[in-house]
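[step 3/7] inverse_fold.run input=structure_tokens len=124
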């Protein structure tokens, strides 16, 4: 293998293109194994390079991207917490609440209220 490929120079290999793809679709359920495959690397090499380039693990980075997407949806839509959790790739409202409490210290609904976002429509 040429030295520039080993060091990640040139070409479209590496965490960068995978990170870009993840940014475009944070709700996609793509694991680290598949992301490493897209970057033409082993999981260990991908994780190491990703951490070196971004400063965090792929899992933590993706969780933060998903949380940012959820925050945007909470601020700008009246979607329910369940629909937002699904759209962000977190699966269910329990996982979304866990992420919000871990990273922001409040619930998704408290976040929505704090940002004067529209309340979800309820069925009558």
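[step 3/7] decode complete -> sequence:
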């Amino acid at each position: 293998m040429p030295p520039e490929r080993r060091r990640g120079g040139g070409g479209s290999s590496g965490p960068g293109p995978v990170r870009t793809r993840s940014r475009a679709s944070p709700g996609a359920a793509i694991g680290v194994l598949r992301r490493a495959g897209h970057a033409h690397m082993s999981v260990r090499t991908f994780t190491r390079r990703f951490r070196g380039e971004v400063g965090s693990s792929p899992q933590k980075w993706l969780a933060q991207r998903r949380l940012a997407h959820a925050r945007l949806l909470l601020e700008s839509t009246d979607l329910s917490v369940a629909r937002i959790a699904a759209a962000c790739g977190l699966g269910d409202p329990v996982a979304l609440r866990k992420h919000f409490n871990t990273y922001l210290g409040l619930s998704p609904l408290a976040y929505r209220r704090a940002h004067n976002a529209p309340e979800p429509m309820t069925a009558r």
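[step 4/7] annotate
The chain has a mean pLDDT of 79.
The two ends are 64 Å apart (CA to CA).
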